User: What shape does this take?
Amino acid sequence: MTKQRKAVALISGGLDSLLAARVIQEQGIHVEGINFFTGFCVEGHTHAIRKKDRARPKRNNALWVAEQLGIKLHIVDIVEEYKEVLFNPKHGYGANLNPCLDCKIFMVRKAHEWIRDNDFDFIITGEVVGQRPMSQRKDTMPVVARDSGAEDRLVRPLSGQNLPPTLPEREGWIQRDRLYGFNGRSRKPQMALARQFGLEDYAQPAGGCCFLTDAQYSVKLADLWQARGEKQYEMDDIMLLKVGRHLRPRPHFKVIISREEGEGNFMQGYRKQYVNLATKSHAGPVALIDGEVDDQDIVLAARLVARYSQGKTADQVEVEVKRLDGSSERLTVAPLSPGEIPQEWYL
Amino acid sequence: MTRLVVDARRLLCPMPVIRVQDRVKGLPPGSQVEAICTDPGALNDIPAWARISGHKVMETRTEDGEYIIVVEVGPES
Assistant: This one.
């Protein structure tokens, strides 16, 4: 009796990984999914935080894709291990702080460890030659296979016909002529294949699923590292970079000011970790101070927060300040005028 | 019957799913895991994960702004 071959598919939640897994399922392979959580994934978090987004139907696309495929999905927390990838990417960063090639190598390496531990035969990804400027080029895709250690156990079904035959093809576990030869940035072949499989509802490609590809987010992360004097972060840091306005009035502290109620509620959860401010005489935002501050700094932060309250044109605004030792005080301050907030403060 | 509690308060999805997934590993079929979450996304994500993993959602409820999801471990955990 022929051995049932098994593959694990890297499932991001987008169309390409959905199709790649489906193409291999069609060849009679048992497929399960794996999804890596770095902490920088776009979907979900802002959705959970911002009030306006909460009204939209919410789903985790990776879980949804797995359900469409009828496969199990293993979600793996790589938050800690991922730091080294982000701090020291061997192949460098992309346009922002996105270490895309090192990231892909790391994830395929983790998947390779997983297949060895779980007695699976090969790995599937939705990569397409020429689709991404860093990690999905004709010259870098072999680097992913080599540096991850997966070598010829890494199958890219959507571009398989453009790449050298892999072990599963040579061994006859899958047929090469039932793989595809997609190439380049056009999404039309994927959409056509989706129609062929009867798939109409899938996540729209949006240039990646990672905050690190976002210019504004990267600026805030780089500022965090500079202010701390080292490349380091905790989960709370990367979560807070996703919310609020970030302004740095002085090199040693920044102020995070909520932009709407949902963000304010979320930031309330950090009250014990950060000096926090809230306007009392007028409706206004919640604000956190990141850094060590003296009384003068707190007054400046309070004036800044007052600027974003409904008392922004009032002569004076009352602001409550809660310190880390649990004490609180109320300050009466004049809101800063727009001219007193230099553009360089905005991160 | 075993019932374990997973405290996933203040965690945003998919972390609550990961916590439940890791807790369920190795538990005998019929065991129950109760997840306490504050991200409403868990109300969708944990049941979706349970469905594809062969587990059963026994109960979902909201209490004082917290979301509680009880999962019963299926035969193939």
About this structure: The beta strands of chain B are 3-8, 32-37, 56-63, 66-72. Residues 3-72 of chain B form a domain with the Translation Initiation Factor IF3 fold (CATH 3.30.110.40).
